């Protein structure tokens, strides 16, 4: 029953997308909209087909930068959450600094990082890490503190150390919160890498978008956005798959 419902929902979603594309194409043709303002899906598809190898290569560069930045942000956020779990007195200072970094506009910090670190992948990785660490920090810390009270009481009656309680109770209990954070930060990682590439890069989807924008080549711009969207959706689906594999109870709700 649930599988039939899921299959029906997928087909319905695909139908909605196709209807939107056909409506878009019809509206552009009927209004005779210039391609430099808004190209139709057919023009975008033609450009995508003709320049697919270039877009795939650019997408690979952006994907690599996004994944390295995501790894950096996840490790920093998770590490800080573990530290705050054991040393609560540090929370006010660490969270104030984290909020300060989170509140700094990427569009302002990216050019500075490009000057400091050059036009290579380093500034893109740092920018992506800055965008992704905060959700991981908040969700991980919330998950650690939402541990089952009965399990905590049991571990304390067994004279378990703080580290043993963390490993056997708090860490496993935080898995749903960590996967929720990953669902948020995976698209942010791709956006962060692209924004950083806009500020200065020799390759990547961000540079492809910037060149298309400066030349008013809207089919190229939309094609790059399409590749970026596909990559983000693919990464999101991988996170969902890992969540289902790790959290056995999520299978029961499919």
Characteristic key phrases:
mainly alpha; disordered C terminus
Could you give a quick summary of the protein structure above?
This protein has about 250 residues and is mainly alpha-helical.
* Count of distinct strands: 0
Look at the structure and give the mean pLDDT. Answer: 88
| The CATH class of the largest domain | Mainly Alpha
The biggest sheet amounts to:
none
Portion of residues within helices:
over 70%
Q: CATH fold name of the largest domain, please? A: MetI-like fold
Distance between the termini: 10 Å
Gross CATH architecture of the largest domain: Orthogonal Bundle
Gyration radius (Cα, Å) is 22 Å
Give the assembly state of these chains: single chain
Strand content: under 5%
Low-pLDDT residue intervals, each spanning 5 or more residues: 250-254
**How many domain regions?**
2
Annotated CATH homologous superfamily of the largest domain:
MetI-like
Shape, principal axes of CA atoms: globular
Helical stretch tally: 11
Q: What is the N-to-C order of secondary-structure elements (H for helix, E for strand)?
A: HHHHHHHHHHH
Category by helix and strand content:
mainly alpha
